[in-house]
Amino acid sequence: MVVKNILAVFIGGAVGTLLRYAITVSTVEIAFPLGTLFVNLVGSFVLGTFTGWMMRREGKEYIKVGFGTGLCGGFTTMSTLAADAFMLEAQSTIFITTIYLFSSIVGGLLFAFLGLLLGHSLSKKHLASGLNS
Question: Least buried of 20, 54, 65, 79, by fewest C-beta within 10 Å?
Fold first, then answer.
C-alpha cells in the first residue's frame, strides 16, 4: 500500500509539474508573474474542490495522495512565488510586490475555500442522488 501511494505521488507530481511548466511558459511575459499567480490560484481551487468532494467519502488513499499531494502539489509552487516576489521587488516597486503577494496568499486561501464549498456541495448532491461511488 505504501509503495502504491509513493508511486501515485510521484506520477501526480510529475504531471502537475509538467502542467505548471506548460502554463508558465505559455503566459505573456510582462513584469508581473501572471503564470505563477494563475497556477497557484487554480491549484488552490482544484485542491479545495477535491478536498470538499472527498470529505464525505471513503476513497482509495493512493487516489487522494496522488491527486492532492502529487498533482496539486506539483502544479502549485510556493518556492517560485517566493523567488518571483524577490525578483519583482528588485525590478519594480514594493507596492507591486505587495499586490502580488496579497493576491497570491489571500487569493489562494479564498480560492481554496470556494473550491472546498463547491466540492462539498457537489458531494452532498451526489450522495443525495444515491450515486455513492
Answer: 79
Q: 1: Cβ–Cβ under 8 A, 6 or more apart, which residues?
A: 61, 62
User: According to the annotation, is 73 in a ligand binding site?
Assistant: yes
* Residue 93, marked binder: no
- 92 pLDDT more than 80: yes
Q: CA 43, CA 128: separation in Å to the nearest integer?
A: 28
* pLDDT (tens digit per residue) in 97-119: 999 999 999 999 999 999 999 99
pTM above 0.70, yes or no: yes
132: CB partners within 8 A, 6+ apart: 126
CA–CA distances in Å: residue 8 to residues 1, 5, 19, 129, 130? 11, 5, 16, 30, 29
